[in-house]
């Protein structure tokens, strides 16, 4: 087992013993683990860089993301898009693509020498929403209950929907970089046959159609079996918890079989949607009972803790390597106008008022999905491009901790409650 994994597990173990004392501050967990990660690798930053740029680290973070995406999909209550179907559909089908376009455009202005495919990877890395670094926002009574519900459902969906775009853009960016960096003297028809073939294969394999089919088949099939088994008292809540933990691993594993070579993230996410819809069909409850969600939630939280620990080391790595001003500006734009403007435009002429549109746009913290996507991109891309993606990711997530985890709750707590919010 790599020493990074062992050290990370030891750090999480120690943090788990004292975390309860800091639960009232939702941001304490990410900050504490981030600092632990930075302190742990300060003695040998270069070794840490090599450790996260390895195949085994790539597989670890991939499995973590598969579990988190599945958990996000199963926790939504209501139909496919929850109780606020029209609003959520606008956010994930209009605002999110518009944010991607604006982010790529901003990258063209700030990083003109970087290819469009790499900029698309950057957009996919820094746009997913995660309330782990700002959990207190979803409990803040100064945010209307409806908006909290919208934000919660959106955060459960946008990382899953962006993962196929990330998979395709990363696969294509890697192959295109190989072609671009090939010396002109070596460019011949025979020399390009391999990269071009890989380019086409990467595109075909990254298209999520096969992964969607795998996810639907596994999710709906297993969800139906669990519903029947629970209704006939064949299985109990404990058995259902085990099923929910194993299912995303199976979905990811099946999608990764060479004969399919599909996007495992998409398969796990779609399996979560299919499982939830089939498991709750015909029930009075709109969502899966918490007694069945408990295990996958806790394992997901534990896995996320490891990701936050790794972010601490990545932060130290990019700081020692140097951060240009445009990277910080890119992060600031990603956390503000690159989300606020698309959200506001997408919700025009909807049931969401002008003030609430701005609030939804402003409250978009970044977290685990961004970290995992950033690590995968750093692992797969050539060194220079990988460092760019990693640095922007670190700046964005750390900036989100400061903005959404610390500043936003303080500002909201100063607001007066104009009416009783339930």
Automatic annotation (TrEMBL):
Alphabetical keyword list: Antiport, Ion transport, Membrane, Transmembrane, Transmembrane helix, Transport
InterPro entries the UniProt entry points to: Cation/H_exchanger_TM (IPR006153)
Signal peptide region: none
Organism: Microbacterium murale
Compartment(s) where it occurs, according to its Swiss-Prot or TrEMBL record: Cell membrane
Residue span, Cation/H+ exchanger transmembrane domain: 14-413
Broad class of the protein's primary localization: membrane
Record protein name field: Sodium/hydrogen exchanger
Top-level taxon in the UniProt lineage: Bacteria
Membrane topology: Multi-pass membrane protein
TM helices/strands, residue ranges: 29-49, 87-111, 117-139, 160-182, 202-226, 233-254, 260-278, 299-319, 325-347, 359-381, 387-412
């Amino acid at each position: 087992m790599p020493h990074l994994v062992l050290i990370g597990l030891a750090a999480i173990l120690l943090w788990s013993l004292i975390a309860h004392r800091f639960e009232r501050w939702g941001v304490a967990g990410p900050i504490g683990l981030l600092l632990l990660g930075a302190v742990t690798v300060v003695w040998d930053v270069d070794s840490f860089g090599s450790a996260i740029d390895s195949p085994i680290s790539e597989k670890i973070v991939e499995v973590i993301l598969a579990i988190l995406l599945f958990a996000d999909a199963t926790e939504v209550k209501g139909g496919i898009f929850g109780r606020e179907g029209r609003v959520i559909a606008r956010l994930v089908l209009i605002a999110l693509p518009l944010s991607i376009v604006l982010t790529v455009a901003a990258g063209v202005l700030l990083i003109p020498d970087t290819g469009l495919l790499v900029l698309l990877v950057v957009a996919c890395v820094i746009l997913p929403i995660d309330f782990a670094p700002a959990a207190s926002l979803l409990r803040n009574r100064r945010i209307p209950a409806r908006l909290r519900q919208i934000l919660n459902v959106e955060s459960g969906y946008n990382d899953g929907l962006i993962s196929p775009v990330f998979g395709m853009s990363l696969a294509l960016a890697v192959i295109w970089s190989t072609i671009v960096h090939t010396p002109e003297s070596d460019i011949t028809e025979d020399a390009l046959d391999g990269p071009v073939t890989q380019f086409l294969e990467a595109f075909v394999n990254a298209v999520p159609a096969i992964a969607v089919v795998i996810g639907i088949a596994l999710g709906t099939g297993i969800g139906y079996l669990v519903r029947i088994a629970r209704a006939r008292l064949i299985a109990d809540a404990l058995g259902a918890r085990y099923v929910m933990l194993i299912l995303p691993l199976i979905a990811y594993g099946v999608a990764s079989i060479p004969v399919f070579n599909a996007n495992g993230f998409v398969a796990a996410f779609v399996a979560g949607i299919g499982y939830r819809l089939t498991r709750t069909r015909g029930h009075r409850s709109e969502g899966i009972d918490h007694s069945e969600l408990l295990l996958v939630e806790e394992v997901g939280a534990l896995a996320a803790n490891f990701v936050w620990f790794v972010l601490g080391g990545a932060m130290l790595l990019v700081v020692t390597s140097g951060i240009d001003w445009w990277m910080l500006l890119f992060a600031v734009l990603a956390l503000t106008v690159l989300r606020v403007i698309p959200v506001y435009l997408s919700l025009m002429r909807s049931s969401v008022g002008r003030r609430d549109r701005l609030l939804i746009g402003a409250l978009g913290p970044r977290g685990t999905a961004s970290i995992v996507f950033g690590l995968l991109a750093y692992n797969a891309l050539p060194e220079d491009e990988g460092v760019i993606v990693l640095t922007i990711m670190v700046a964005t997530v750390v900036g989100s901790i400061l903005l959404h985890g610390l500043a936003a709750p303080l500002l909201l707590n100063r607001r007066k409650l104009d009416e009783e919010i339930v």
